[in-house]
């Protein structure tokens, strides 16, 4: 009998495959929710990050969005262009740095993201609510650790 190409005896013994399955389930849930607001998951990540920046007094620049959301620079640029065409955001030169592009909400964009955030946070509670408090805290700690140790510093590239 030929040696298996796989390291694990069971597919679910692979942490990467488990992550794939979990991510797929989460993405399906988000697609359903965000479709109601006319945005996709990347656009949601950008808009939610932008809302976070506004509330925290952080710079609302494209480069800060790239860094915060871990989305490639070109993808952020294209997505913001589409969000601008949809009437959700406006772009301008940053008042803090003339080389940077600032992004801000339109009135309709601000309304949409507030509704979308509430819907996604409700989905968050439902999806992750199958874990008890200790398990959820551990999941968040482990996930943040994995992101911190594997996050590419050249994502803006």
Highlighted features:
157 residues; mainly alpha; Arc Repressor Mutant, subunit A; two-stranded antiparallel sheet; 6 helices; globular; disordered C terminus
The CATH homologous superfamily name of the domain at 38-141 equals: Winged helix-like DNA-binding domain superfamily/Winged helix DNA-binding domain
Shape: globular
- Which fold name fills CATH's third level, the topology of the domain at 38-141? Arc Repressor Mutant, subunit A
Q: Total strand count, please?
A: 2
Q: Classify the oligomer.
A: single chain
- Unreliable residue runs: 153-157
**Count of discrete alpha- or pi-helical segments spanning 4 or more residues:** 6
Order of helices and strands: HHHHEEHH
Q: Helicity range of the residues?
A: 55-70%
Percentage of residues in DSSP E strands: 5-15%
What value does the Rg take, in angstroms? 18 Å
CATH C-level of the domain at 38-141: Mainly Alpha
- Helical/strand content category: mainly alpha
- The CATH architecture designation of the domain at 38-141 is Orthogonal Bundle
The largest pleated sheet is described as: 2 strands, antiparallel
Terminal Cα span: 46 Å
**Strand order, sheet with most strands:** 1-2
Mean pLDDT level: 91
Structure description:
The protein is mainly α. It has a domain at about 40-140: Arc Repressor Mutant, subunit A (Orthogonal Bundle), CATH 1.10.10. It has helices at about 15-35, 40-55, 60-70, 75-85, 105-130, 135-150, and strands spanning about 90-95, 100-105. Strand 1 (about 90-95) and strand 2 form a beta hairpin. Helix 1 crosses helix 5 and helix 3 packs across helix 4 (about 75-85). The longest helix has 22 residues, at about 105-130.
């Amino acid at each position: 009998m030929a040696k298996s190409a796989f390291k694990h005896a069971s597919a679910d013994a692979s942490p990467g495959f488990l992550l794939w399955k979990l991510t797929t389930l989460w993405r399906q849930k988000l697609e359903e929710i965000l479709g109601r607001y006319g945005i996709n998951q990347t656009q949601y990540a950008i808009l939610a990050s932008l809302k976070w920046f506004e509330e925290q007094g952080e710079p609302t620049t494209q480069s800060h969005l790239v860094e915060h959301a871990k989305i490639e620079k070109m993808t952020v640029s294209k997505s913001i262009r589409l969000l601008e065409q949809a009437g959700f955001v406006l772009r301008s030169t940053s008042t803090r740095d003339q080389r940077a592009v600032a992004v801000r909400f339109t009135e309709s964009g601000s309304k949409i993201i507030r509704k979308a955030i509430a819907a996604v946070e409700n989905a968050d509670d439902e999806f992750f609510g199958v874990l008890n408090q200790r398990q959820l805290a551990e999941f968040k700690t482990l996930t943040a650790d994995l992101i911190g140790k594997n996050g590419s510093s050249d994502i803006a590239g």
